[in-house]
Amino acid sequence: MQVLAFVSDLFFQAKIAETARQLGVDVRFMASWPKEFQDLDAPSLVIVDLNLSSSDPLSTVELARAEFPAVPVVVFGSHIEKSLLQRAAETGASVLPRSRFTQLLPSLLAQKSGC
Predict the structure, then answer these.
(1) What domains, with CATH codes, occur in the chain?
(2) Mean pLDDT over all residues of the chain?
(3) Is 36 exposed, middle or buried (0-12, 13-18, 19+ CB in 10 A)?
């Protein structure tokens, strides 16, 4: 199973990559939502950082929900950005503050990989 991660922060990329490696989960980091889906299989999980610098994170969440409606989308961001977190929650995504995302990352990836 593959996880799509829209994360530009190098610290979080490293954290996600290392946790995924330990669990044997394939993670594909992406800068923005691809225009074509021919080479993109349905992922088991989509992760979006609300501080994504390469594209609009809320648009990315909406595109993920539209393209893969049955796939869980987990969004994380700073707890002080309440408005942005609320708008992300309105898309139907699971929204977590950064600290909670870090704590739950192993279980999120393990659940999606069948570990």
Answers:
(1) 2-113 (3.40.50.2300)
(2) 87
(3) exposed
